[in-house]
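quick one before i forget lol
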Amino acid sequence: PEKNRKAEGKIIEILGNILIKKTNNIGNPVAGCNFDLYKDEGCTQKVASGTSGSNGELTFNNLKVGTYFVRETSVPEGYLIDNTIKRVNVANGQTVTVDFLYCLSF
C-alpha cells in the first residue's frame, strides 16, 4: 500500500530517487548508455527511460516508494551491454545508487 503523509491539510507523497552509475572496466564513466526503469520484474510496465551523461550518471527523480527494476537497453559502440535486470528498492527521501560495470568488447 502506498503511504502518504498529511502536512497542514495537504497530502504529501513519499518519494525517492535512483542514481545509475556507469563505468568501464578501469573505473572511468561511460556516457551514452540507455536505461529503462520498470515497475515489474518482467519489464512490461515502463516507468521512465534515460541516457547516461558525460559523468556516466543518470538519475530517475521523484519516484514513489517501492521496488523498481532497471535494465540497460543500449551502449556505445565498443562496449558490451549488461543484460542483468537490477532490482532496486526506493525508500522515502533516499537516493539509491545502482552500479553498472562495462567491459570493452574485443
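fyi The mean pLDDT is 88.
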